[in-house]
Specification:
476 residues; mainly beta; Immunoglobulin-like; 3 domains; six-stranded mixed beta sheet
Length: 476
């Protein structure tokens, strides 16, 4: 474990446990000397033309002064070493969303590391065992730090990538801007915390409001979608095209058309699409976001350029991407737990445990809390574990959303299979790290607890997390 900060004994022990977890990985991912990629990220204030002309530039917080942060690309099995410099006026961390890192590299303040103070530097170093689409962002006051722009893509390429003409990434962002294109400063407002989070009024693709995305006739495009918004759920329709989903949260799935033709991404979700552009130069295909029926809008157009069309493919079939080395849960011998989400406006929660004491809803709200997991409203990242798992054992969790709102629930350090939704078996039993629960919905997920340490389990609507919907899962 590297870095310029001093660690206490507990943090050192977590680091040892994290390194021990590397033994669970396949041989190629724990070879003696994997190739190391060195990256430096500087978190600092910046100005960018977020809304575009004729609007003025917007003050943001960004990595290396660009929005989104620099896209990091690395090959599966390689090692990543990232030197993070904090030039903000407050503490920060970096969480590597979806990467199965050792616990000490997970970037959760006070739980896995001391936050990086203004002017300090910390070095994260870990192997990347799974190919796929991932991202990075702070876990320190994330409802504001992510909301001001601190996020970037992390792409782990397959050792044998699929045959496509182009591999492109769309980082989908959502912003609450004032008339002068400034970011509204009303972060952490109880109105957002208690409802559906901080929904903005401006949507960007790769840090800009865009009218078109240029494509070429005959092109086969791998499009990696990453939702880095605080709370907005996207439901994208690719008018006139037939997108095929090939991966969700970085993990391969059997290629299939999205349900009802709409690609749904909750906050923190990633979906990889294959798009075959069948038009002619000058054609346009509108991409429509229709998730919120009363706020339907055109995100952008895929505009076919005047370049000569690419030759028609002899083989149009799409092979399944190679699977990642994930341990399959033993459902027959799995231990089962129920996890109930409660609270929010139009909920039935009258009290919850806060700091070890049962507390009425009025006092909870006075402390900025209105959500709970299994009756506990978390007021920080460090608290008694919600669940304790034995390392190497299989577990099935029944997640019950007893609220009137959506909740994308994210588990750090692990992937899980979705077994069922509302009692109906999942068609594809997909591997996810973030499952979107609709209001009053329930889902069963299964995992092998094979990565030791204390791991966050929380709603990735970041205002819900701040309002109490998070817990710790301990693997020991």
């Amino acid at each position: 474990m590297r870095g310029s900060l001093h660690f206490n004994r507990r943090e050192a022990l977590l680091g040892v446990a994290g390194m021990a977890g590397a033994a669970c990985l396949p041989a190629w991912a724990r070879s003696a000397a994997p190739r190391t990629r060195d990256v430096t990220l500087v978190a600092r204030p910046s100005r960018v033309p977020l809304a575009g002309s004729p609007h003025p530039d917007t003050d943001v917080w960004a990595y290396d002064g660009v929005l989104p942060g620099p896209e990091i690309r690395i090959r599966q099995g390689e090692r990543l070493r990232v030197r993070v410099e904090n030039r903000l006026a407050e503490e920060t961390t970096v969480h590597w969303h979806g990467i199965r890192v050792p616990n000490a590299m997970d970037g959760v303040p006070h739980l896995t590391q001391r936050p990086i103070a203004p002017g300090e530097t910390f070095v994260y170093e870990f192997d990347c065992p799974d190919a796929g689409t991932y991202w990075y962002h702070p876990h320190q006051r994330s409802f504001e730090q992510v909301g001001r722009g601190l996020a970037g893509a992390l792409i782990v390429e397959e050792t044998s990538p699929p045959a496509v003409d182009r591999d492109a990434t769309w980082v989908l962002g959502d912003w609450r801007l004032t008339k002068d294109a400034s970011i509204s400063g009303d972060f952490g407002h109880m109105r957002d915390i208690s409802h559906n989070g901080r929904i903005g009024n401006t949507v960007t693709v790769n840090g800009r409001v865009r009218d078109i995305f240029a494509v070429r006739a005959g092109e086969r495009l791998r499009l990696r979608l990453i939702n880095v918004a605080n709370a907005r759920i996207f439901g994208l329709e690719f008018s006139g095209l037939e997108p095929m989903v090939v991966a969700i949260d970085g993990q391969p799935v059997e290629p299939h058309a999205p349900e009802a033709g709409r690609v749904v991404l909750g906050p923190a979700t990633r979906i990889d699409l294959i798009l075959d552009i069948a038009g002619r130069p000058g054609d346009r295909y509108a991409v429509i976001d229709s998730f919120y029926s009363v706020q339907r809008y055109r995100l952008l157009d895929l505009a076919v350029s005047d370049d000569d069309p690419l030759p028609e493919r002899a083989d149009k079939a799409m092979a399944r991407l190679p699977s990642n080395p994930l341990a399959e849960p033993d459902l027959r011998n799995a231990q089962r737990h129920e996890v109930t989400l409660s609270g929010g406006m139009m909920g039935h929660m009258s009290s919850a445990m806060m700091n070890g004491r049962k507390t009425d809803i009025r006092t909870l709200m006075h402390n900025g809390l209105i959500w709970a997991i299994n009756g506990v409203a978390a007021s920080g990242h460090v608290h008694d574990p919600l669940l304790t798992f034995e390392r190497g054992k299989s577990y099935v969790l029944r997640l019950v959303n007893d609220t009137a709102w959506h909740h994308p629930m994210h588990l750090h350090g692990h992937f899980f299979r979705v077994l069922s939704v509302n009692g109906q078996p999942s068609a594809r039993r997909e591997w996810l790290d973030t499952v979107l629960l609709y209001p009053r919905e329930e889902a069963e997920i299964a995992l092998v607890a094979d990565n030791p340490g204390d791991w966050m389990f929380h709603c990735h609507i970041l205002e819900h997390q701040a309002g109490g919907m998070m817990g710790v899962v301990r693997v020991a």
